[in-house]
Design brief:
The protein is built from 5 helices and 6 strands, in the order βαβαβαββαβα. With 187 residues, it is of the alpha/beta class. Strand 1, helix 1 and strand 2 form a beta-alpha-beta unit.
């Protein structure tokens, strides 16, 4: 049995394109069960404020613990964590703290995503980031952290934090490419 768990970002919920289609791609390769983590951000204006970002993480992580407390992860042959933005921090931290042998798809990870990953993610994760993402200090910092963690990272030129550009047709092509890479990784 295969399980996919979706960890949204702040303002980027599980019904937005990356997580919605990521889950649908997972379903197409046999992940029949899924759980969407639906937490509520109660701390505003976190962008660029490390203290507020840490407080938001702690609050959202606490909510995640409650949401996932009844799942017996040992009952699954394969577990996939799909995550977006702050959800990438929550997903990697949750997997690390609970020793869950899962794979990760990290859509627009933040630098803090890699801070709680004591175990090697080589072969167990894939990441996507954009060169115009205002939530990261620099694309180079993300790609460097991914390389150090053994995570292949796909960089989308001129893409923002939603991995979108100013061109709708390019966005649709990018989404298709991202989903194809996601499918290849999770097969």
């Amino acid at each position: 049995m295969k399980l996919v768990v979706c960890f949204p970002g702040i303002g980027y919920h599980c019904d937005k394109p990356l997580l919605y289609y990521g889950r649908r791609v997972a379903e197409s390769v046999g992940y029949k069960e899924y759980k969407n983590v639906e937490y509520v951000n109660r701390i505003g204006n976190v962008k660029g404020d490390p203290v507020k970002m840490q407080a938001a993480f702690e609050d959202l992580y606490g909510q995640t613990e409650k949401i996932l407390k009844d799942i017996d992860f040992s009952g699954y042959d394969s577990i996939l964590f799909l995550s977006k933005s702050v959800g990438t921090i929550i997903a990697t931290t949750y997997a690390e703290r609970h020793k869950i042998p899962c794979r990760h798809v990290l859509y627009t990870p933040l630098e803090a995503t890699f801070d709680n990953c004591a175990s090697d993610l080589s072969g167990r994760a894939i990441a996507f980031t954009g060169t115009a993402d205002p939530w990261v200090e620099s694309t180079a910092a993300i790609t460097d952290r991914c390389q150090k963690a053994g995570i292949p990272v796909h960089v989308i030129e001129k893409a923002n934090h939603s991995l979108e550009t100013a061109n709708v047709w390019k966005n649709l092509k990018n989404l298709e490419d991202i989903m194809k890479l996601t499918a290849e990784f999770i097969k």
